[in-house]
Amino acid sequence: MSKTCLICKEPTNQLSICETCAHELLLARNSYTYPLAYLRLSKTGEGIPGFFTTSMQLDKYHSSLLRSKNPNDIFLGLSSVVFWGYFIFGEAYSLNRTKWLQSGRDGQSGLVALGKRKLIHIVGSATQHIVNGRIDLGIKEISNIQELGQISFSSKITSFIEPKSCGIYDKVIHDQFKLMAPNQGGVTRPKANKYMDYCQYLKSIAIELNKGINLGYPWKWTDKNSSSYNWRTIDTERAIYSNR
Ligand SMILES: [Zn+2]
Q1: Which residues pair with 39 in a beta bridge?
Q2: Nearest Cα to 223, choosing from 24, 65, 58, 61?
Q3: Rounded to two decimals, what is the model's pTM?
Q4: What is the Å distance from ligand 1's center to 208 Cα?
Q5: 76 within some domain
């Protein structure tokens, strides 16, 4: 039974990814250089910037905070993801955006005004939806938080909640995929559905790469400390991001 490559659509043999596309993704994932910036809290509750050495450290840090039942952890997790997301525009700018998330701006209320109960409810129910395979409902729930109302940022939160199943859809990805406006128009139901389809496409590529690894292809991606891993949905997205 012949198959076609999910990326280039050329005919393939065993897998739905060809060796050329697999190799290109591997090189791109291995050269992903986005800063591994995060925020932690000082004893007095101030956000202090830090840097991880590996992608896996960053992902585990954010995932465990966002999946926590403690509202303070969730507050820090959302703040740290926003800080990370804006970090390429500089630390000062990024800290400022984090402050907007926390305290609001232009009459919009931030996380502090939202309150701990609501915060736990939103992030907790988003996580539940995502774990149940309803990524569309999950991203819609996250977009109820001011400053996370666009796909570009709500998808950063879903991706750190569940890197196995979700990837980010931002301007860099949009320039290649052209599925929906990532930074305007909010997270409507059609956009939430498109986002879920996009994640499933990324995941199907990750699955094929992992099948290839099982067949003996040297396709594990390598983190900054030289440890190598099977592919998650977020790794496919990072490869595509890196390959712009
Ligand atoms: Zn291909």
Answers
A1: 49
A2: 58
A3: 0.96
A4: 11
A5: yes
Identify whether the C-beta of residue 115 lies closer than 8 Å to the C-beta of residue 103. no
Asked whether residue 156 is assigned to any structural domain, the reply reads yes
CA of 231 to the centre of ligand 1 (A): 17
What range does the domain containing 211 cover? 36-242
Instruction: For 110-155, write each residue's pLDDT tens digit.
Output: 999 999 999 999 999 999 999 999 999 999 999 999 899 999 999 9
pLDDT tens-digit readout, 59-100:
999 999 999 999 999 999 999 999 999 999 999 999 999 999
Number of independent structural domains in the chain: 1
Residues with CB under 5 A from ligand 1 (ion): 5, 7-8, 18, 21
Instruction: Report CA(165)–ligand 1 centroid distance (Å).
Output: 22
